[in-house]
Design goal:
The structure holds 2 protein chains of 2 kinds.
Chain A (H helix, E strand, L loop, with lengths): L19 E7 L2 H11 L8 E6 L8 H5 L5 E4 L3 H13 L5 E7 L1 H13 L7 E5 L5 E5 L5 E5 L1 E2 L1 E2 L6 E9 L4 E6 L12 E2 L3
Parallel strand pairs in A: 1-2, 1-4, 2-3, 4-5, 6-11
Antiparallel strand pairs in A: 6-7, 8-12, 9-10, 10-11
Chain B lengths: L6 E11 L4 E8 L12 E9 L2 E8 L9 E7 L7 H8 L5 E5 L2 E2 L9 E7 L4 H12 L4 E7 L8 H8 L3 E5 L8 H6 L5 E6 L2 H13 L7 E4 L10 E5 L4 E5 L5 H7 L18 E11 L7 H6 L2 E2 L5 E9 L2
Parallel strand pairs in B: 8-9, 8-11, 9-10, 11-12, 13-17
Antiparallel strand pairs in B: 1-2, 1-6, 2-5, 3-4, 3-6, 3-7, 13-14, 15-16, 15-17
The chains are: A alpha/beta, B alpha/beta.
Chain lengths: ~200, ~325
């Protein structure tokens, strides 16, 4: 159920008409690319570039992705490591490029942010959530971003305040909003529950 | 009734024959002062009082949005149309007093775009004259591709070339030149928006090709005013006002409703904006839908009509008006 309008809604990847295709996934997101491939026209991957960040899935998807025979295949250790390549790819891209983002909200949000920065129309981008629901959270107090947040509340990895993770999402920051949960009485420490799995 | 129906009293200060088919009209406020601000792509609805008949035709503003001392429009003479353009060409002179609407923009630039790729056919050049002036004033990135029948009938080709140099690309049918659309679409940087104004066939060609190239709908802008077509006269019952009216051969349904003293909302009078959408209560006959607003299903449903451009043939038509 939608709680806040800014909360992103994800869809299902499907092949779009386009001159070239950029597919980016982390971990279980690879399975969304494999599912898209089943519906794609024969020559779809001859103009496709796959960027993959395996994360917790280790070696389970690489061979299957490579077997799609994309024109370019990249594998990297993290979103941060992949971003310069994305920026460079988009700087040389033309209209007619379609983007497909699949996996965690952190990956989708950060890649989307870089793509919009490069001038791509959000309507050219498809998204599909797969795998972990871990969130990127920005602390509204110190502005530091904490990655891979799975608990409610969470301790800010920068300033140490205990944060309530809200559904309020910022596309500009590609992060959810974290607000101090015990500002009135810092001795009150609610128990952490793992809810973003 | 709606934003576009606020009126301005203007005086024609200049009429210029641009070429064999096109005349340019300059309007200034009759009471002096500047006209309202507008943005490139806007149009005004010009009222033409021709004896008992009042025609209201939309024309794109082509003057610079930065100079609102006057508005200018260009009118292409259509010898087989309903007579609006002939009225402008033959009856409107310097010094004529006229009534025009406030400007309305249904073809505005998306200023988030990194680049604006403009495609014009024939008299479809007019909104681009205003848009290029607007963009040039703020260092905007644009490129214009303009196709005309012949050099003699190419309106404003020279002034555009002079102002913008190689950003203006001209193509003449008489030399068998054609816009290289596939190459253009394949080589645009991310964030480019395309704008097309011209004949219906050209708009369809550009929209279809852009879609096949993977351009999202949001980045494809087009303006197609379907001028109301003349047709067989027909009778209509207006259920709300309790009136029975006859739509003349050279009259649009909207004009006939207005002539009967009913004042429905409208903006574009060209079948694109949706303001004058009217519910059909009952009918016995065939609709002649000419709008770009209703969906195919709505056209078949017999429940709605756009009275600005669409007509009817048959025994009876009752509208909720």
């Amino acid at each position: 159920m939608k709680t806040i309008l800014s909360r992103p809604v994800y869809g299902t990847l499907s092949p779009q008409a386009g001159k070239s295709h950029l597919l980016i996934a982390d971990a279980e997101g690879a399975s969304a690319i494999l599912d898209l491939a089943k519906k794609a026209p024969e020559d779809f991957f001859t103009n496709a570039h796959i960027m993959f960040i395996p994360g917790r899935t280790g070696n389970s998807f690489q061979d299957l992705l490579k077997a799609l025979k994309p024109a370019q295949y990249y594998e990297g250790p993290s979103v941060a490591a992949a971003l310069p390549r994305l920026t460079w790819t988009l700087a040389n891209a033309h209209m007619g490029l379609r983007m497909y983002l699949a996996g965690t909200e952190g990956l989708i949000g950060q890649m989307m942010q870089a793509a919009i920065e490069a001038g791509i129309d959000p309507a050219s981008i498809q998204t599909e959530h797969r795998g972990s629901w871990a969130r990127r959270v920005q602390c509204v107090h110190c502005k530091g971003v904490t990655e891979n947040v799975t608990t409610q509340p969470v301790t800010c990895s920068h300033c140490g305040l205990l944060l309530l993770v809200r559904d309020h999402y910022s596309k500009r920051l590609a992060a959810f909003q974290g607000v101090c949960i015990n500002a009135e009485d810092p001795t009150e420490i609610p128990q952490k529950e793992e809810i973003f799995r | 009734m709606s934003a576009g129906t606020n009126k301005l009293n203007v005086t024609v200060t200049e009429v210029v024959a641009v070429n064999e088919l096109v005349k340019r009209f300059h309007f200034e406020r009759t009471d002096g002062g500047n006209l309202p601000t507008f943005s490139g792509g806007a149009h005004v609805v010009v009222e033409m009082r021709d004896g008992d008949i009042t025609r209201l035709n939309p024309y794109s503003l082509m003057s610079s949005p930065l100079a609102t001392r006057d508005y200018t429009i260009s009118v292409r003479r259509d010898d087989v149309g309903r007579g609006g353009s002939l009225f402008m060409h033959n009856r409107v002179k310097r010094g004529s007093e006229m009534v025009i609407s406030y400007p309305v923009n249904l073809f505005s630039l998306d200023l988030r775009a990194r680049k604006h790729l403009m495609i014009a056919g024939g008299i479809g050049i007019t909104p681009f004259l205003a848009q290029t002036a607007q963009l040039a004033s703020s260092g905007g990135n644009f490129e214009l591709h303009y196709t005309c029948r012949s050099e003699a009938l190419g309106s404003y080709t020279e002034v555009l070339r002079e102002r913008y140099g190689s950003r203006v690309n001209l193509y003449y049918d008489e030399h068998n030149e054609r816009i290289p659309l596939d190459r253009l679409l394949a080589t645009q940087p991310l964030g480019t928006h395309i704008y097309v104004c011209g004949p219906a066939g050209m708009i369809k060609w550009v929209r279809d090709t852009a879609a096949a190239h993977g351009w999202p709908d949001d980045s494809v802008h087009y303006e197609h005013f379907a001028a109301p077509q003349p047709g067989t006269p027909f009778d209509v019952k207006l259920a709300v006002s309790g009136l029975e009216i006859r739509v003349g051969e050279q009259q649009s349904l909207l004009e006939a409703i207005e002539a009967a003293g009913v004042d429905p909302p409208y903006l574009c009078r060209g079948g694109v904006c949706g303001q004058c959408e009217t519910n059909v209560i009952s009918y016995d006959g065939t609709f002649k839908h000419n709008d770009h607003w209703l969906s195919d299903e709505e056209h078949c449903s017999g429940k709605k009509i756009m009275p600005c451009v669409s007509r009817f043939e048959g025994r009876s038509l009752v509208l909720e008006r």
